[in-house]
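User: I'm curious whether this sequence folds into something compact or stays loose and floppy. Could you predict its structure so I can see for myself?
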Amino acid sequence: MQEFTEQQLERYSRHILLQDVGVEGQARIMAAKVLVVGAGGLGAPILYYLAAAGIGKIGIVDCDQVDLSNLQRQIIHFVKDIDVAKVDSAREKMLAINPEIEVVTYREYLRAANIREMIRGYDFVVDGTDNFPTKFLVNDACVMEGIPFSHGGILRFDGQTMTVVPGESACYRCTFREPPPPDAVPTCSQAGVLGAIAGMLGSIQATEVLKFATGVGELLTDSLLTFDAKRMDFKKIKLRKQKNCPLCGTDPTITELGDAAQTLCDLKE
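Assistant: Here's the prediction. I'll summarize afterward.
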């Protein structure tokens, strides 16, 4: 087991005090490797909490740069970061809160040609994107590589999330077969989003990562958690792995990754 310094014992004392976590659980957190796709509305709180928790290696994928409209919800970016690459801005804050972690940045388009190689070597992937083609790309690549991941999405006052463990639970395509037609569903830049919604859902996704790393509790597998913040109404919809899923079913028709029109850099979440 990893030897903890006195400073680490103090830093992570509130985790270690938890009977379900303890020293062993914190050691697992510190050994975990997590890739977060998107450093915007969802990615900001996710990255903050994973860094603070001590996740040993955190990768960030985003090719966008910070603009003024981001600051209403993307809490990892500051006024001084306007026009700075989001991956660099996020990395600076993460190391400021926890200099012991490793942060790897990928300032590039997420495509079928690079995603599988990018996610290999990580234990868990978090989808913090805001367009459907990229969400399906993350799902398909993670299922093909056998890497668990958390899906999340926000719009206006609403949020939804699910966790996928390939081979065991329903994947994103078991419930949503394919991306909707372009412009059928507005993005946050078109329809708006309450800033705190990003923090609500991002915190839930970060919690899923920590539960996965420690083995504590039950993951949001085979469940779609939704909430309406106007009424503060949370619902959990049961899902089921579909035998006829085109990706993870018994006779898959999707065997190769493909690119759609939108990419991660279209995000304005």
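Summary: The chain has one domain: 32-266. Residues 261-269 have pLDDT under 50 and may be disordered.
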